[in-house]
Amino acid sequence: MFNFWNMQVKIFGVRGCCFGIANMILVKRIREALYSALLLQDISFFDSETVGDLTSRLGADCQQVSRVIGNDLNLILRNVLQGAGSLIYLLVLSWPLGLCTVGICTILSAVMLIYGRYQKKAARLVQEVTASANQVAQETLSLIRTVRVHGTEGEELGRYKWWLGKLADISLRQSAAYGFWNLSFNSLYHSTQVIAVLFGGMAILAGHITAEKLTKFILYSEWLIYSTWWVGDNISSLMQSVGASEKVFRLMDLLPSSQFIERGVKLQGLTGLIEFIDVSFYYPSRPTVPVVQHVSFSVHPGEVVAIVGFSGSGKSTLVNLLLQLYEPTNGQILIDGHPLKELDIMWWRERIGYVGQEPKLFRMDISSNISYGCTHYIKQEDIEWAAKQAYAHDFISALPNGYETLVDDDLLSGGQRQRIAIARAIIRDPSILVLDEATSALDAESEYNVQGVFRSVRSDLTTRSVIVIAHRLSTIKAADKIVVMDGGQIVEIGSHRELLLKDGLYARLTRKQADAMS
Ligand SMILES: Nc1ncnc2c1ncn2[C@@H]1O[C@H](COP(=O)(O)OP(=O)(O)OP(=O)(O)O)[C@@H](O)[C@H]1O
């Protein structure tokens, strides 16, 4: 009647195609998820969702999705067809016995549904707990020096064990649920056989069906129940995958920043005039805490402006707004009179040189780290020129492979990393230079020399505007203008002399620093 074997062979042929499609979808999904992650407007997403967690999800979750499409869907399709065939044949053989089997399969499906939902929830939990355990392991290993110095190996191990214990708990409950599901299946399967033998035997005795028909019936009802079981098993595995992949789906649902979608304005030249006009800002993760309030100041072309203030007063946040990592909540930033948010983001970032507080280098050779982000081809001699300007050439030349040396976190000191980051900023020959504690790890002499380079005119003889955040008096004194911040607001603006005469917060800060030095 039904050549199931042939049917299986044909459907298994489809399996190869399914896997092919699944792998294509997998690659596309990973690309989409990475794309959404890289182009997010709110980069604080990465603060809450640790990067390690995200990357493990990108791999593991997408593989789950691929497995579902390539394997589970194929098996579901095969068993639905097989079950439907068996059901039709059973009803043709004997509809009362066929209906009994349908009743048992319905109960089986209901148990399956509950089990599938449970698996979905459990899979989500397993993903979350595994991610937390991984995070602890990653954190402990990356902060191994801090852990050793504080002698907290035992505590860290305890933290890791706690998460593993939670994982074991969930796995135990999952196994119990699987046992219950298997028990239900076996009980229902055997009850079908008992019903078939009991009622079928009675029907044979009454002469309604033949022994041959009953044998066929038992065989096909077995097919039907097994198909129902397989469909259930695969649907629960599908639910698990859906549960586990929810985070990746959520990531892909986030819209990329409009900065990258809409092409903005490219100015005909950039003089370097920056104006902050009544700028206020709240971080999206802390919408009730104003970090910057009604800030207005300007940086004229060629000017060096220092931003000073207590720790946490909002200095780096101002820089983040200028780099367009965030949009001001109120007010606006103008560049050469044009609103910053209307400028083409790539064009703008090409014209800015930025050195952050603790510059991070990529695991590439030193030359690639220096030329990182440059849009045109950079000659080796230009890289060496930038390194010389940043007072990095001597130590780079002393490394075993010179500029070809692969950068490793342990290889370079904080000051050496800063010099490479400074060379990276200089090589871009930017119109605007932003330095956030960029020379804090340099010795006094190197800092003095490097400052001269920051100020110098650009290769096309135009001036360069510099915004510098610093705590060291020597750096601040050299600025044309000093902006003093306190609690997210500007409390004083002026030159070093003017501010000392004012005898306000700046004068107090400099006196304290002078006292500390003496
Ligand atoms: N991504 C963030 N999400 C939420 N709050 C943040 C974030 N980054 C900084 N903050 C908060 O904003 C405030 C200002 O931080 P900011 O880094 O701008 O200060 P700062 O003056 O540069 O400090 P420092 O001199 O120590 O670098 C702080 O209270 C800080 O906790």
TrEMBL record:
<keyword id="KW-0812">Transmembrane</keyword>
<keyword id="KW-0547">Nucleotide-binding</keyword>
<dbReference type="GO" id="GO:0016887">
    <property type="term" value="F:ATP hydrolysis activity"/>
</dbReference>
<protein>
    <recommendedName>
        <fullName>ABC transporter B family member 26, chloroplastic</fullName>
    </recommendedName>
</protein>
<dbReference type="InterPro" id="IPR003439">
    <property type="entry name" value="ABC_transporter-like_ATP-bd"/>
</dbReference>
<dbReference type="InterPro" id="IPR027417">
    <property type="entry name" value="P-loop_NTPase"/>
</dbReference>
<dbReference type="InterPro" id="IPR039421">
    <property type="entry name" value="Type_1_exporter"/>
</dbReference>
<dbReference type="Pfam" id="PF00005">
    <property type="entry name" value="ABC_tran"/>
</dbReference>
<keyword id="KW-0067">ATP-binding</keyword>
<dbReference type="InterPro" id="IPR017871">
    <property type="entry name" value="ABC_transporter-like_CS"/>
</dbReference>
<feature type="domain" description="ABC transmembrane type-1">
    <location>
        <begin position="14"/>
        <end position="240"/>
    </location>
</feature>
<dbReference type="GO" id="GO:0015421">
    <property type="term" value="F:ABC-type oligopeptide transporter activity"/>
</dbReference>
<keyword id="KW-0472">Membrane</keyword>
<feature type="domain" description="ABC transporter">
    <location>
        <begin position="274"/>
        <end position="512"/>
    </location>
</feature>
<dbReference type="InterPro" id="IPR011527">
    <property type="entry name" value="ABC1_TM_dom"/>
</dbReference>
<keyword id="KW-1133">Transmembrane helix</keyword>
<dbReference type="InterPro" id="IPR003593">
    <property type="entry name" value="AAA+_ATPase"/>
</dbReference>
<feature type="transmembrane region" description="Helical">
    <location>
        <begin position="87"/>
        <end position="115"/>
    </location>
</feature>
<dbReference type="GO" id="GO:0005524">
    <property type="term" value="F:ATP binding"/>
</dbReference>
<dbReference type="Pfam" id="PF00664">
    <property type="entry name" value="ABC_membrane"/>
</dbReference>
<dbReference type="GO" id="GO:0016020">
    <property type="term" value="C:membrane"/>
</dbReference>
<dbReference type="InterPro" id="IPR036640">
    <property type="entry name" value="ABC1_TM_sf"/>
</dbReference>
